[in-house]
Amino acid sequence: MNANLHGKPTIMVQGRADALVQINHASRPYFGMNQLTEGGASKLSFYEVTNAQHFDAFLSVAGFDTRFVPLHYYNLQALNLMWSHLKSGTPLPPSQVINTVPRGGVAGAAPPLSAVNLPAIAVSPGSNAITAAGGAVNLPN
Q1: What's the CA gap between 88 and 100, in Å, rounded?
Q2: Its GO CC terms (predicted)?
Q3: Which of 51, 43, 41, 67 minimizes the C-alpha distance to 17?
Q4: 95 with 12: CB under 8 angstroms?
Q5: What is the DSSP string of 14-59?
Q6: DSSP result, 53-64
Q7: Which residue in 69, 61, 79 sits closest to 99, CA to CA?
Q8: What are 57-72's pLDDT values in tens digits?
Q9: What is the distance between the alpha carbons of residues 34 and 130, in angstroms, rounded to a whole number?
Q10: Which of 84, 75, 87, 52 is nearest to 121 (CA)?
Q11: DSSP single-letter state for residue 113
């Protein structure tokens, strides 16, 4: 409730297009509160994925296939990043927006996913970094 993770390394991954658990009412405010609570000692990394929503099972449905990318792909990346962090001390990438590319095409017959659609979580996000200051979460477009 107070967003105090007591210095525990944590990763949050959420799709920007999540209509079930809206990002403005879940991950973003939690990230902002954590930054107020723990400040520079926080070990929270927040990855916001564009064109991703809550139900990957719907990606085979016509219309979903052309507009959305699988969020589970990033959940697996996050788990591997955390494993590497805990096992080898590899730093977790900073909070960031991951700009994906929808497949497009014809609803029900979208082209296959490729690396173009699903860029990796960046070690250095540059202009895609998510930051917080004074309780406000700053998001790149």
Answers
A1: 29
A2: extracellular space
A3: 51
A4: no
A5: EETT-SSS-GGGTHHHHHHHHHHHHGGG--EEEEEETTB-S-GGGG
A6: -S-GGGGGSTTH
A7: 69
A8: 999 999 999 999 999 9
A9: 13
A10: 75
A11: P
Instruction: Enumerate residues 6+ apart whose C-beta is below 8 A from 56.
Output: 70, 71, 72
Q: Please check whether residue 137 is in contact with residue 28, taking contact to mean a CB–CB distance below 8 angstroms.
A: yes
What's the CA gap between 27 and 62, in Å, rounded?
A: 28
Residues 92 and 125: their CA atoms lie apart, in Å, by: 12
For the chain, helix, strand, coil in percent to 5 are: 35, 20, 50
Tokens for 114, please give them.
Answer: 């490729």
Question: Do residues 109 and 58 touch, judged by C-beta distance below 8 A?
Answer: no
The span from the CA of 141 to the CA of 138, in Å, is 10
pLDDT tens column, 13-57: 999 999 999 999 999 999 999 999 999 999 999 999 999 999 999
Rounded-to-integer distance, Cα 141 and Cα 50, Å: 10
User: Could you tell me the end-to-end alpha-carbon distance of the chain, in angstroms, rounded to an integer?
Assistant: 28
